[in-house]
Amino acid sequence: STLLNSDVKHKCELFHRSQPVPVWQITASRFISGIGGLMAVAFTIGLFQYILGNLTLLIISPLKVDWWLSLNGFLAGWVHLSISLLVLGSICFLLSSIFRDNAVGKGALVAGSLQAAVMIINYLLGVHIPHPIKGLFDLIVSNIGSFTQIFPTMNYGIQVVHAMNTGHQLEMFKLPPYFLYNVWCTVFSWGVALKIAVSGFLYILATYIYQKRKVQF
Q1: Could you tell me which of 80, 5, 95, 92 has the C-alpha nearest to residue 39?
Q2: What pLDDT sits at residue 123?
Q3: What are the Cα distances from residue 83, in Å, to 38, 41, 91?
Q4: Is residue 177 predicted with pLDDT exceeding 80?
Q5: What is the 3-state secondary structure (H, E, C) of the chain?
Q6: pLDDT at position 15, please?
Q7: Contacts of 27 (CB under 8 A, 6+ apart)
Q8: Which of 3, 26, 24, 33 lies closest to 208 in space, CA to CA?
Q9: Residue 85 — pLDDT band, cuts 50, 70, 90?
Q10: Under a CB-based contact definition with an 8 Å cutoff, are residues 99 and 107 in contact?
Q11: What is the pLDDT of residue 122?
Q12: What is the pLDDT of residue 131?
């Protein structure tokens, strides 16, 4: 949220904006380094957890580790997290182009005011205008929810606990047919494509606002 305001903070906005560098190049470099940096950190942490988690299972449990299957789960999960980071980062990027300081706080205040206004209108007029905060939350994380719903591991875990408590033999666990195909279908979907398009639009809008706003001396 401070990517477009670091120059203001360090009182060098006039110097940087007067350089022979297109404003689109400035915003693109900050957008990619800021959001891409978060994605890289998430990938590094996830890769570490993937290797350490599988090695731990091999050492302390009798469970068979499927490295290929877990790798697909890690990569697909990272892609979905990256999509959510892209949308959230694009929103914060836009806020940083509108507000020069405390962009997230002011953005949250605006969203809260809109939410309160919608709730009051719905109550007084008996209408059902969608809540903006819920829509914003769904825009950011809905793809993660659709991704986790295809995993049957929670139900299997419940079956394991039930079998241990009752002393019954648990049957061999089998994944549903076309499981990996369904996993990657959640990545290559119209919903994800829409989120990427929205993020691109927010970046273009933020750059336009940043380009038009007055330079602070």
Answers
A1: 80
A2: 85
A3: 11, 14, 13
A4: no
A5: CCCCCHHHHCCCHHHHHCCCCCHHHHHHHHHHHHHHHHHHHHHHHHHHHHHHHHHHHHHHCCCCCCHHHHHHHHHHHHHHHHHHHHHHHHHHHHHHHHCCCCHHHHHHHHHHHHHHHHHHHHHHHCCCCCCHHHHHHHHHHHHHHHHHCCCCHHHHHHHHHHHHHHCCCCCCCCCCCCHHHHHHHCCCCHHHHHHHHHHHHHHHHHHHHHHHCCCCC
A6: 72
A7: 4, 203, 206, 207, 210
A8: 24
A9: very high
A10: yes
A11: 87
A12: 86
Q: Does the pLDDT at position 192 exceed 60?
A: yes
Q: Find all residues with CB under 8 Å of 112, minimum gap 6, and list them.
A: 133
CB neighbours of 9 closer than 8 A, spacing ≥ 6? 2
Does pLDDT of 163 surpass 60? no
Mean pLDDT, range 155-178, rounded to an integer: 57
pTM over 0.90: no
Long-range contacts of 10-18 (CB under 8 A, 24+ apart): 13/215, 13/216, 14/215, 14/216, 14/217, 17/215
Shortest CA distance to 199 belongs to which of 61, 114, 94? 94
What would the mean pLDDT of 62-83 be, rounded to a whole number? 87
How far is C-alpha 66 from the chain's CA centre? Answer: 27
Number of residues assigned to the chain:
217
